[in-house]
Amino acid sequence: MAKPLLPDELWAIIEPILPGYTPSPKGGRPRTADRKALTGILFVLKTGIAWEDLPHEMGCGCGMTCWRRLRDWQLDGTWRRIHAALLARLDDAGKIDWERAAIDSSSVRAVFGGAIPAPTPRIAAKPAASTT
């Protein structure tokens, strides 16, 4: 049997981080479950297929549904929170070797110069002591 893209242990970590959803009072088509949408997102990102080629047999909804969920979670910061939670768990388990982590301007580009830095306060030189 193939290894699942979203094991129960990983889903247990991610599920509480995902934003809640309130159905429309007007009704409409039922929303695709978050776990199914996340499985579809992981499948597309892992395999590199186009969103519209997501196999319907997977039961993840259509590719556009998964793409919209990916977009929405990116815009509201959900992916950042998931990443932070997973890093925290790895760090707590001692699975991250921080000695090998490095970041500097040669590996992370500051597009258009980055943010404008705050002005640096200048310290005036001490006046020379007078000898008279």
Automatic annotation (TrEMBL):
Pfam families linked to this entry: DUF4096
Tree of life domain: Bacteria
Domain Insertion element IS402-like positions: 6-83
InterPro entries tied to this protein: IS402-like_dom, Transposase_6_like
Name of the featured protein: Insertion element IS402-like domain-containing protein
Organism: Tuwongella immobilis
